Amino acid sequence: MLSHKLGFTNEISEPMTLAEIYSQTLLVDLKLCHLVQESKKMISFPFVGIIIILTPIVVYILNLFRKHAIWKKAYESIPSPPCVPLMGNLHLLSSERDSFLRLLMATASKYREQSCFCIWYSIWPIVVLTNADGLEIFFSSTKEITKSFEYKLVEPWLKTGLLTSKGNKWRTRRRILTPSFHDANLLQSFLIIFNEQSRICTSRFETLSEQPIDMYPFIAACTLDIICEAAMGTSCQAQVEKSEYVEAVARYQIGDIIVQRMTTPWMWPNFLFKLFPIGREHEKLLKILHDFSRNIINNRAQQFGGNQLHSKRMAFLDTLLAKMHDEQLTMEDIQEEVDTFMFEGHDTTAAALNFACFLIALHPDVQQKLHDEINRIFQDDLERACSMDDLKQMNYLECVIKESLRLLPSVPSIGREAQEDLTYNGHKILAGQTCYILIKAIHLDPKYFPEPNKFNPDRFLPENSAQHSHHFAFVPFSAGTRNCIGQRFAMLEEKVFLSTLLRKFSLTTTQTIEDIRLAEEIIMRAVDPIYITLKRRR
Ligand code: HEM
C-alpha cells in the first residue's frame, strides 16, 4: 500500500483523532520534503514527475483517512456489523445476488431498537434508517430532496429527469408533471390501455394453464406495453413481438449492466467504464433506448404541431408537448422525462404484480375473498372492461395490493444525501452523508404491524387502519415531497391487471415465502423464478 511505503501505518479500524492525523500528515510532509530535496540533488526529471503525480494522490488518501476519522467519531453511537480494516463490512458480502439485501435486513432486525445502523463500504459509511419515527428529516423537508450517489449511474440513460434531478430543476418539472396524473382525460385513456394490455396478457396465460410457469416475463412485457403507450402514445408491442428496444428494457439487459456497475466501484468513473466490454455494451443499449424514444417524440411532436393527432388517447408526452413553449422545454428535456417514466413505471409495477400473484397463490383464504369480491362486481361477465366505478368497489383487492407492497416492496430502499447536519432519533447525521431509507425493514416494525411477517390484508381495512397510523410506517411509494408521482397510476394498473387475471384463473404455488431469495437490484427481484400454476375457474 502507498500509505505503508510512506511510513503511514495507522490501522484504519481504530478511529484516529485529528491530532494524530495532523502528526501523520506532518510526517508525510517531512518525507515528501526530504524526497524533493533528494530529487533536486539527482535532478532526475522522471523522479520529479513521479512526485508531481503522487502528491495529489497522497493528499487525497490522507484527506480520506481524515474524513474516515471524523465519520467514525460522529457515528460512534450508531451500531454496525463487525468491521475489518480497510474493508469495513465488505467482507460480509458474497457474490450471491441476495447477499447485500440479506445483510441489510439481518442488521436491521438485530438493531431494530436503535432505529438505524451503519454499513461501512470500505472506509465510507452509509447510514441506514429503519424506523418510521424520525423520517420527517427527509420526508417532511423541502430541502432534503437530493438523491444519493448511486442514482448517478442511471443518469447516462435518464439524464436528469424527475427521478434524478434536484433543486429548482426538480421543483419546476414536478410542478409541470403532477397535474397529468390527476387529469381525468388522461386517466380515462390509461384505463383503456390497462384493460387492453391486461387482456392480452391473460390470453397468453390461457395456453399455459395447469402447469407451473414463471409469470414475471409475461407481466414485465405487459407493464412495458402499458407504460410505453401511456408515456409516449405508442405501444412497443412487447407482448406480441421481439424488438431491440424490448430486449434492452424488458429482458433487463440495461438494468443488469447498471446493477453490475453499482457493485463494482472501479467502474464508476465514466472514462474507465467505457474501457470495459460491459461499458461498450452499455453505450450500444443506450443508443437503442434513446433512438427509440427520440423518434417517437419527434413523430408525435410533428403530428401535434400540425394538429394531426388523430388518436383519442392522450399520453404524458402530449401534456409535455403542450407545455413546451410556455415552460421553455427543449426536446431533450421532454425526452429525459419520458425515459424516466419508462424506467420507473415498468419494472416497479411488474415486480409488485409478480409478488402479489405469489402471495395470493400462497393464501387460498385471501384468494377466495378476492374471487367473491370480483364475482360481486362482474357477475359472470369474464370479458367486459373494468370501469372506474368497478375499480372503486375493489376494496379488498386494494388491501391485498397494499399488504403485498408492505411485505415485498418493489423498491426496498431509497437513497438520500443529507444537505445539512441532521438528527435522527438522537443520532447525528453529518451533511453530505449518504443515507438509505430501508423501506422493507420499516414495513416490518411490530409496533405498527403486529405479527409483521404474516400476510394479512385485513390490516389495511379502514376499521383496522389505526394499527399502522404512523405517517411513514407504510411507504412503498416513498413519502412527502419526493414521493412516487406514479402512485395512483400504479394502483389502478395493478387493480385492473389482477382483477382481469382473477376473473378467469385461480392461482396456486408449491413454493413458500422462505424459498424466495430476494435481491436489491435497483428494484427488488426474486433471485430464482417464482413458479405459479394458473387454473381456469370455469
Ligand atoms: C408499484 C409500482 C411503483 C412503486 C412501488 C414505485 C415506487 C417509487 C418510489 C419508492 C419512489 C421514490 C424513489 C426515490 O426516492 O428514490 C418512486 C419515485 C418515482 N416514481 Fe414510482 N413506483 C411505482 C410505479 C411508478 C409508475 C407507474 C410511474 C410512472 C408512471 C412512476 C414514476 C416515478 C417517478 C417519475 C418517480 C420520481 C419522482 C420524483 O423524484 O419526484 N412510478 N417510485
UniProtKB/TrEMBL annotation:
InterPro entries: Cyt_P450, Cyt_P450_CS, Cyt_P450_E_grp-I, Cyt_P450_sf, Cytochrome_P450_Monoox
Molecular function as annotated in GO: heme binding; iron ion binding; monooxygenase activity; oxidoreductase activity, acting on paired donors, with incorporation or reduction of molecular oxygen
Main location: endoplasmic reticulum
Residues passing through the membrane, by range: 45-65
One Pfam family, short name: p450
Name of the protein described by the UniProt record: Cytochrome P450
Ligand binding (heme): C484
Similarity section: Belongs to the cytochrome P450 family.
Organism placement in taxonomy: Eukaryota, Metazoa, Spiralia, Gnathifera, Rotifera
Cofactor requirements of the protein: heme
Subcellular location field: Endoplasmic reticulum membrane
Entry keywords, A to Z: Endoplasmic reticulum, Heme, Iron, Membrane, Metal-binding, Monooxygenase, Oxidoreductase, Transmembrane, Transmembrane helix
Keyword Heme found: yes
GO cellular component, one term: endoplasmic reticulum membrane
UniProt key word Chaperone: no
